[in-house]
Amino acid sequence: MDKPRYEFRTVNRILGEQPRLGPFPADQIVPWSAIALIMYMVVKGFMQQSWFATGIAIAWGWATWWTVSSNKAFFGKFVGTPRLSRGYKPFVSLVNPPRFEPKKKRKPKKRTLINSSNYRR
């Protein structure tokens, strides 16, 4: 008899992948649309340049945005760090908590009164 084979079979290769729209990452679609609209208004509308210059400006904006925002390497620098402050309670370990033993009563020290007769003159 054949031994049963326990191999995993890939059902959906897309699972676990970054969402894409064709070759472009899905998280870049909205920023690229905004860049294209702004570049069109500035280069074609305001500066009255050709479509070629507008296309070059849009491609430059897209490439810059993709470089700056890829893999969160650039924008990850701007994540806020937690604010550290000093506490007023001492550290108590949760793993090894201190054992509180009842304190023994201390015997009071005997006090002696000092008389002037005890001193030599």
Automatic annotation (TrEMBL):
Q: Where in the sequence does UniProt note compositional bias of the Basic residues kind?
A: 102-112
Provide the alphabetized UniProt keywords. Membrane, Transmembrane, Transmembrane helix
What residue intervals traverse the membrane? 21-43, 49-68
Renumbered to this chain, region (Disordered) spans 99-121
**What protein does this entry describe?**
Uncharacterized protein
